């Protein structure tokens, strides 16, 4: 007791104002909590903790997990508004490249990020385009321009795409297409990345379109370009942060050349199913998000109906109780009850499934054997397709800005999934 009393007395002598200081800090903390800042900070910390957990799971399993670790270390220094603006403008790739090669952000980049944050705060949202960011921060967001004929000719287009082209016809046609694009689309700092990305994506979509979705060639090509998803990891779905979600894709092997393509080019030249080709090249990001979200929800509804129809035919009307794990079924029931409690009209129980649930249902041993193998042929192939699409499910259901990678994946894997189900591609 005497020793404790002496320690307290000594502390008060060294810091006579400690009581007032503690009261002041408590008051500041109370204000922080009441303003909502504490909840926001806690949510942000939780997101980074989820991402860190993903790194620990991915480490040593994927070739680029170390790149993602560097991104994760630098991510807290990047304001959320800046990360979201870069994602919405299709300008994440240059930042991800910097984070992937540097141990930390250098001072000049940190200063530019602070400038971007100020610029965003003082700019009308309607004017916050990639062009505006490029004009003010060219080192951070490279300007887009048209390629020169020499730059296109310098790239082995067929070789990049993996297309057999002994007569050079494919390369000439692709070069002509590139020259005819009417909106600036190559990065001023590295035009070859955009040109190679265009050729690689064009080659992949053409091969996928004329090949069975379960064919080894299609599966291997998509895996090489969009990443390896043979190993399912719930951490991919847990990330609500656009930059970290892109980082996880890179860790799985996503081709960064594809990410260098601007959103306008992907949305209009490589027209995804359900999109209107005549849409203006500089579409409003909010409208583009809405269109992509609609496309994805339509795909998900078709997949849910396909699973329900197939399971009823192969197992019976009570397939949910017989062939869905109890924990998953109880979670659906909980969500349905939440609608009832909120006086919303409840749907069918299967309507409350998450996208990740579909993969588990299809891959479950007896379901695969009795129902789905005749449709999908190769379990790992359909599993990878659903794994890549499930990453998009998060921003569609929540608020993360959609990225150019999301649109590229939806373009390829949505097409494959429709064909797997025997559905006409919209």
UniProtKB/TrEMBL annotation:
Residues 295-410 form the Swt1-like HEPN domain. Pfam families: HEPN_Swt1. Keywords: Plasmid. InterPro entries: HEPN_Swt1. This is Swt1-like HEPN domain-containing protein. It comes from Sphingobium yanoikuyae.
């Amino acid at each position: 007791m005497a020793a404790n009393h002496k320690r307290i007395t000594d502390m008060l002598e060294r810091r006579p104002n400690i009581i007032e200081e503690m009261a002041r800090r408590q008051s500041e903390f109370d204000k922080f909590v009441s303003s909502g800042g504490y909840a926001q900070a806690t949510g942000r910390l939780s997101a980074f903790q989820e991402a860190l957990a993903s790194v620990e799971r991915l480490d040593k399993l994927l070739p680029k997990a170390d790149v993602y670790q560097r991104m994760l270390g630098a991510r807290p220094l990047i304001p959320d508004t800046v990360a979201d603006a870069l994602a919405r403008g299709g300008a994440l790739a240059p930042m991800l490249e910097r984070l992937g090669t540097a141990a930390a952000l250098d001072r000049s980049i940190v200063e530019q990020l602070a400038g971007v944050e100020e610029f965003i705060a003082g700019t009308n949202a309607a004017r916050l385009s990639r062009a505006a960011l490029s004009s003010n921060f060219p080192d951070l967001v490279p300007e887009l321009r048209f390629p020169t004929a020499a730059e296109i000719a310098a790239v082995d287009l067929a070789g990049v795409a993996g297309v057999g082209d002994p007569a050079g016809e494919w390369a000439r046609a692709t070069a002509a297409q590139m020259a005819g694009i009417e909106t600036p689309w190559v990065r001023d700092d590295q035009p070859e990345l955009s040109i190679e990305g265009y050729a690689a994506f064009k080659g992949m979509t053409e091969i996928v379109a004329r090949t069975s979705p379960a064919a080894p060639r299609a599966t291997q090509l998509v895996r090489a370009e969009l990443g390896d998803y043979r190993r399912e990891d719930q951490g991919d779905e847990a990330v609500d942060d656009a930059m970290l979600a892109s980082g996880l894709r890179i860790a799985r092997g996503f081709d960064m050349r594809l990410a260098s393509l601007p959103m306008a080019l992907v949305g209009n030249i490589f027209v995804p199913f359900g999109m209107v080709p005549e849409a203006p090249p500089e579409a409003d990001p909010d409208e583009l998000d809405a269109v992509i979200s609609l496309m994805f929800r339509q795909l998900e509804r078709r997949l849910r109906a396909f699973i329900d129809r197939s399971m009823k035919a192969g197992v019976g009307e009570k397939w949910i109780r017989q062939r869905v794990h109890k924990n998953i079924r109880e979670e659906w029931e909980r969500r349905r009850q939440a609608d009832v409690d909120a006086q919303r009209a409840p749907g069918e129980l299967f309507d409350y499934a998450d996208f990740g649930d579909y993969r588990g249902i299809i891959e479950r041993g007896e379901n695969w054997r009795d129902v789905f193998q005749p449709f999908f042929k190769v379990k790992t192939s359909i599993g990878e397709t659903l794994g890549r699409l499930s990453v998009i499910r998060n921003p569609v259901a929540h608020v993360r800005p959609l990225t150019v990678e999301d649109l590229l994946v939806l373009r390829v894997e949505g097409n494959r999934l429709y064909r797997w189900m025997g559905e006409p591609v919209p």
